[in-house]
Amino acid sequence: MTDPMELVERLEKITAKPAGPGGIIRAKKRDLIEAAACIRELVEWRPIETAPLDRTEVVVMDGLGVYGGAWFHPREAEWIDCGGCVPTHWLPLPPPPADRGGV
Fold first, then answer.
1. In 3-state terms, what secondary structure has residue 70?
2. What is the pLDDT confidence band of residue 71, given thresholds at 50, 70 and 90?
3. How many whole angstroms separate alpha carbon 62 and alpha carbon 64?
4. How far apart are CA 29 and CA 21, in angstroms?
5. Cβ distance 60 to 90 under 8 Å?
6. Which residues pair with 67 in a beta bridge?
7. In DSSP terms, which residues pair with 92 in a beta bridge?
8. CB atoms closer than 10 angstroms to residue 48
9. Is 47 in contact with 58 (CB distance < 8 Å)?
């Protein structure tokens, strides 16, 4: 499997080159730029200061472990479901599968 960040870097390198005179080439370049941005958004850890504080479940890490489904409890002013961790970074959860297995 390709490392997602390696793929992002390859896509960004491709799109850094001139697009050429053809409209199709420009359209494809726009698609590649959008794909690279989308992949980067899904896999690049973000500083915890930018995490949603509205009980949205996210993946967090504290330098020792990674915890999925954690969320910030505004009234308690702490992260829940991360074993008392003090997270430094976060990622959004991926979207659920289209077929949730009858759920």
1. strand
2. very high
3. 5
4. 12
5. yes
6. 60
7. 58
8. 17
9. no
* Cβ atoms < 10 Å from Cβ of 90: 22
Structure tokens at 72: 């910030």
Q: Report the C-alpha gap between 63 and 93 in whole angstroms.
A: 19
pLDDT at 88 over 90: yes
Whole-angstrom distance, CA of residue 26 vs CA of residue 28: 5
Closest CA to 45 of 80, 79, 13, 5: 5
In Å, how far are 33, 48, 90 from 97, measured between CA atoms? 25, 26, 21
- Contact between 58 and 70 under an 8 Å Cβ cutoff? The reply is yes
CB 82 within 8 Å of CB 60: yes
Domain residue limits, the chain: 4-43, 46-92
pTM of the model: 0.68
